[in-house]
Amino acid sequence: MRAGEFEPVRGVEDLYVHDTGMFDTDEYGAVYVYDAERPIVIDTGTGANRGALFESVAEIGIDRDELAWILPTHAHLDHAGGAGYLAERYPNATVRVPEKGVRHLVDPGALVAGTKSAVGDQWEHYAEPKPVPDDRIEGVGEGDRIDLGDRELVVRDAPGHAPHHAVYHDPDAGVVFAADAAGIYVPEVDAVTPTTPPPQFDFEQCLDDIRLIEDLDPDTICFGHFGPRRCDADLLGEAKRAYVEWVERVREKRAELGDDEAVAEHFEAVSRDIDYWNPERARANTSLNARGVLTYLDRVDDAA
């Protein structure tokens, strides 16, 4: 699948994945479209390539006045930056997002400032988000159910990646829309890589979120990046190990270098060997993830 294209999710009736082409990397940005009785778009991308998403929704067979729900998994702009544009495009759709993310989509100024500070030059891959009107958005929380007519999604809080993060479970189809809760599964290397951005990444909670997904026992996990994957017995165990090993690597490098900026620069340099996305994104992502772990370690030390 190439940027701007969509395809069915194998083994799940009426579910499609659209590739936003985020960060000029094929399949990195996954948006899911459920052509249910009350259709839904799950996650929105940054908004930068929204025209292609609108075309995919139309080709799937969903008219502008038919879309019922726009459902970001969390407020980070690579997942929710297009929410305001979708709300404008689909006048009968209600935006629903975890409760702590509502204010960020109604007034995205603080989130934009934080994102620009965190991603630097990578901001060129984002669109300036359009605010979601406050009469078009509702918060969701643990145990809430989203009615798609012929099925429903169950909301499960998963705040390890960010406090405004949830996963959505379709128990009948055996699908979990995990977004960033279980890391990023990268097909090219057949491995999970952690995603640990500052300032609110919580390592222990992230492990709990992965255990939650294990308990849901899905057949398919719809990752927020690089698309869906059939869930086998080893996948989530690999995810937990990847997080444990990554946090320990950052902890050890901090003890060795004694300077957080040097730690971030070290991991940024190491990232040059990563070739499954563009080099600029690899460096920015690895530096961001290192800074997220360092911030988490500071909180742990302060609480001790």
Structure description:
The chain is an alpha/beta fold. It has helices spanning 50-60, 77-80, 83-89, 102-106, 109-119, 203-216, 235-257, 260-270, 279-303, and strands at 6-8, 15-19, 30-34, 40-42, 69-71, 94-98, 137-140, 145-147, 152-157, 166-170, 175-179, 184-186, 191-193, 220-223, 228-230. A 7-stranded mixed β-sheet has the order 1-2-3-4-5-6-7, covered by helices on one side. It has a 6-stranded mixed β-sheet with strand order 8-9-10-11-14-15, with helices on one face. Strand 4, helix 1 and strand 5 (69-71) form a beta-alpha-beta unit. The radius of gyration is 18 Å and the shape is globular. The mean pLDDT is 94. InterPro entries: Metallo-B-lactamas, NDM-1-like, RibonucZ/Hydroxyglut_hydro, ST1585_MBL-fold. Residues 28-225 form the Metallo-beta-lactamase domain. This is MBL fold metallo-hydrolase.
Main attributes?
MBL fold metallo-hydrolase; seven-stranded mixed beta sheet; globular; six-stranded mixed beta sheet; RibonucZ/Hydroxyglut_hydro; ST1585_MBL-fold; 9 helices; 304 residues; alpha/beta
Q: Quick recap of the structure?
A:
This protein is 37% helix and 20% strand. By secondary structure, the chain is of the alpha/beta class. The mean pLDDT is 94.
Order of helix and strand elements from N to C terminus: EEEEHEHHEHHEEEEEEEHEEHHH
Beta-strand residue fraction: 15-25%
Give the helix tally.
9
Q: What does the average pLDDT come to?
A: 94
Strand arrangement, major sheet:
1-2-3-4-5-6-7
Task: Compute the separation of the termini in Å.
Answer: 48 Å
Rg for CA atoms: 18 Å
In percent, how helical is the residue content?
Answer: 25-40%
- The shape, in one word, is globular
Number of beta-strand segments: 15
